[in-house]
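User: quick one, sequence for these C-alpha cells?
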C-alpha cells in the first residue's frame, strides 16, 4: 500500500476500541463553608421565690404576744467567768444605799469588785463573804463586775488605803514571815524593801542590818526598831498596784493569798 497513508503509518482506531478510563483517586472535594457557628445564648437563671411576709395585722399581733422573730431567736447568753469568781472574802470600801451597790476589796487577789447589796447596814471596812456558797452570802448578791479606780467616789478613794492597812495589820504574821523576814536584793542596784514607798537604798540596808538573822516578830517591834509604819507602807504599795496595773514586781501577786 502506497501513498500518504502508508508513509505516515497512521493507525485509525476502530469504533469498538474505547479510551482507557481515568484512574480512580481518593480525592474528595472539601465541604462547602457553612458560615459562622451559632453561639448559644445565656438563658437567665430562675429567680428564687421570695418568702412572703405575713400580713401587717399578723406581725403586730405576734409582737404583742411576744412571738416576734427576734424573741424566738434571742437566747440567754451564758455568764462569763470573771477574776472575781475566785474571791471568797472581801473588805467593804463603799456601800451605796441609793444604788444598792457594794464596792469591796478582795483578799485573794486584791481586786476591787462591785456587788449588788443585800444589806444596807454593812459598814465600811467590814469583812464579808463573797464566795460561791449562796447560803453564806448574806451581805451581797450577784457580781456586777470590776470596779475602776477612776470611777470611785471621793469617800471610797479616801477609805481604800485605810481599809487595806487594816487588812495588813490583821494578818501581820503572814506579811512578816512572807516579806519582811525574807526580803532580799532584786538586782545589784535594788533591794525588795525599796518597793515600799519612801524606802531608799540606805534605809533598806539599815533594815536588813536590824533584822539580822533572828528576824522580826511583830509590826510593833519592826516599827520601833526601823522607825517606820510597816503596815501603812505595805498598804500604800498595794493601792499603787491597783492604780497602775503595769507596776512591776507586784507584791499583791507575790504575797497573796494570805496563808493560814
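Assistant:
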Amino acid at each position: 500500500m502506497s501513498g500518504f497513508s502508508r508513509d505516515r503509518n497512521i493507525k485509525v482506531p476502530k469504533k469498538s476500541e474505547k479510551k482507557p478510563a481515568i484512574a480512580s483517586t481518593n480525592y474528595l472535594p472539601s465541604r462547602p463553608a457553612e458560615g459562622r457557628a451559632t453561639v448559644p445564648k445565656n438563658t437567665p437563671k430562675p429567680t428564687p421565690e421570695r418568702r412572703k411576709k405575713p400580713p401587717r395585722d399578723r406581725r403586730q399581733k405576734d409582737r404583742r404576744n411576744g412571738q416576734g422573730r427576734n424573741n424566738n431567736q434571742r437566747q440567754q447568753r451564758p455568764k462569763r467567768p470573771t477574776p472575781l469568781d475566785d474571791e471568797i472574802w472581801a473588805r467593804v470600801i463603799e456601800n451605796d444605799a441609793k444604788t444598792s451597790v457594794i464596792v469591796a476589796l478582795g483578799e485573794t487577789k486584791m481586786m476591787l469588785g462591785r456587788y449588788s447589796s443585800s444589806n444596807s447596814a454593812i459598814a465600811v471596812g467590814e469583812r464579808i463573804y463573797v464566795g460561791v456558797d449562796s447560803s453564806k452570802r448574806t451581805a451581797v448578791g450577784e457580781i456586777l463586775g470590776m470596779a475602776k479606780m477612776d470611777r470611785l467616789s471621793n469617800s471610797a478613794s479616801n477609805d481604800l488605803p485605810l481599809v487595806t492597812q487594816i487588812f495588813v495589820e490583821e494578818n501581820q504574821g503572814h506579811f512578816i514571815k512572807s516579806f519582811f523576814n525574807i526580803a532580799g536584793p532584786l538586782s545589784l542596784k535594788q533591794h525588795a524593801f525599796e518597793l515600799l514607798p519612801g524606802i531608799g537604798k540606805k534605809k533598806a540596808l539599815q533594815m536588813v542590818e536590824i533584822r539580822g538573822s533572828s528576824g522580826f516578830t511583830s509590826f510593833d517591834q519592826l516599827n520601833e526598831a526601823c522607825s517606820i509604819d510597816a503596815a501603812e507602807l505595805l498598804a500604800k504599795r498595794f493601792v499603787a498596784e491597783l492604780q497602775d496595773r503595769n507596776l512591776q514586781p507586784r507584791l499583791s501577786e507575790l504575797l497573796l493569798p494570805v496563808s493560814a
